[in-house]
Design goal:
The chain is mostly helical. The chain has 5 helices and no strands.
Amino acid sequence: MTNPDLPSAPLYVALGQALRVLRKRAGLTQQEVAEIVGIRSTFVSQIENGARGMRFHTMIAMLDACEADLGALSAVFERPVA
């Protein structure tokens, strides 16, 4: 049975793509973001590829590393078509 409280894979992919856009705009590598946030670069890669979700505080830390906020994330986020 699917848990309705968990986002679907397309939403993870869309969120990851949006975070990648912001990271690249900031001129940072995955390794640099990982070091700033205190996570592994492989985890950053998995997030950006939509293979993993993350906790809210991790997302905020990633946004902070990119000198972005939720408004900037919202501006580049493209909701997947169902």
